[in-house]
Amino acid sequence: MAFSKGSKLYGIVRMKCPRCHEGDLFTNPNPYNLAHFSDMPRRCPVCNQSYEPEPNFFYGAMYVSYGYAVALFVATYIVANSWLGLGLWQTVGALGVVSLVLGPFLFRLSRSTYFHLFVHFDPKSAEIHRAAPTNQRSSSADIATKS
Questions:
Q1: Rounded distance, CA 99 to CA 106, Å?
Q2: What is the number of domains present in the chain?
Q3: Residue 79: inside a domain, yes or no?
Q4: Is the pTM above the cut of 0.90?
């Protein structure tokens, strides 16, 4: 039940809109397409939630990314040094490889986590948007974003 639609964990890991858990946060599902790994639509295609609620909103995601990077480095260090018995420079090399390989994924995960901290799931948001007339859709989404 903790990983079903409506839970924060579901939305963060699946990188879905935090409000409806249906729309994708990123235009390209592949985080390793480096030309477009950070591209996000302006709004959710399902519930019309703004994907940048205020200018430079995602600067705060750097702090989340730092936390994820520290956790990843500690885990890599423990595995490389304690379990595999690698030396200092081999462990540093392993840390470099892991951070390069997982960098684009951690970037997206950090944005998703940060966004989900501030926007909460509303199971009726997608239905309300689908039922609203076209000329009222953006105004109802802006009101929901501010609350």
A1: 9
A2: 1
A3: yes
A4: no
